[in-house]
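B., you asked whether I could sanity-check this one before it goes into the benchmark set. Here's the sequence:
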Amino acid sequence: MDKWLNHPTAAKLAALFLAILIWAVVHFDPADSSPNSVSSLLETSKYTVKVQTLGLDERNYKLLDISPQSVNLKVKGTRRDFILSKPEDFVVQVDLRTVTEGKHTMELKVELPRGLEEIEVSPRTVTVTIEALLTKEFEVSILTSGNPAKGFKVGTPIVKPSNRVHVTLPELDIDKVDRIGASISVEGEKSTIKDKSVKLAAYDKNGKVIENAVIDPAVLEVEIPITNPFKTVPLKFKLLGHMPPGSSISSFKPDVEQVTVYGPQDALDKIEFINVDIKLDEVKSSGKVSIPLEFSAPIIEISPKQIDINIEVLLSGTRSLEGLPITWTGLGDGLTVKITEPSNGKADITIQGAPAILDRLKPGDVDVIADLSGRGPGIYRIPLIVNLERFMEQVGGTNSITVEIIGDVPASANPGEEVPGDGVVDEGAAGGTGTEGPVDGQPSP
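And here's what the prediction gave me:
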């Protein structure tokens, strides 16, 4: 080893290496950007990048236009930097946080991938057109399409949680909105459609969708009743029997006067009212009486199923009305009638009822009628029909009358026909007392 180091040639080689090393250190300049330096390794490239908007208050403004919609970028960097970059890393933005309605020229902001440098952006600005928005409240309208199963009816749609929404549009478009809603098919349905989620849309008067409308909330829950056919009819109260002795009804107030009847349409068409029978002999005192409503097939249901009636019962009083005129019905053509008993041709009636009702009774409020239907010439004992206000009862007075029916032409007997002579034909006991028969479903005054 010592021999090699002491060799002249080795010493010369070592000296040459040291000289070259010293020269390199002295002449190397890392900041040198000449074509022969590191900069000769950089590349340039061009990109077309779409302009993105940032910060627009979309509740109050709408971007109508941005021009141009994209810009040209020229950047530089090493091949490695270009290889590592992604298209989405090239971002060109315009900040719209402070803009208001109108046309504005805005500076662009450029963000590049790491390692790349911007050389040129063309153009450097864009023009944006901003339109103010208006928000207005509308009621939701749900339409149905198709037909339910035979015999079923579609009820009014129920919208939850509310049937009102807010619609945002440019001011010029908001007046074009005719309705907000959706359509739901009920084709073939036999039961109520529940919790149906529907997406709302804004429609103009021609039924065309307004595409750019912003609706809040955009989706609602809808329930559509699908029911059997129904009909709302009044109640007709029928008072049966008599009140216990000494008692009379003073007031009569049902909680409802109409009910809803469900069933086939042909059956509903025949129903005009629902009868409610009230047995007076079971009404002992004032209070509430509950009466179930009865029905039979093909009726399916009555709603409500029962009604409550508040009845006030008081001690009875009596009142007599004298000299009431008697009218008749059913008299045949060519016949005249004469009342022979009572001789004055008038009726005296004694009436029982609650004192308050009797006090307001007038003679003109009572009708006394004799029915002469089907009777020819002769003398007859005719029961009287006394029409009284509700909750009154005839307890005395004239119950029947004797009449003589006279023909303009003497009657001739046909074979086998009995013709009344001088004898009286008795037509039976006294007529109506005012406590039996139908009573319209109206509360007493």
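One thing to flag: The chain has a mean pLDDT of 83. Otherwise nothing jumped out at me.
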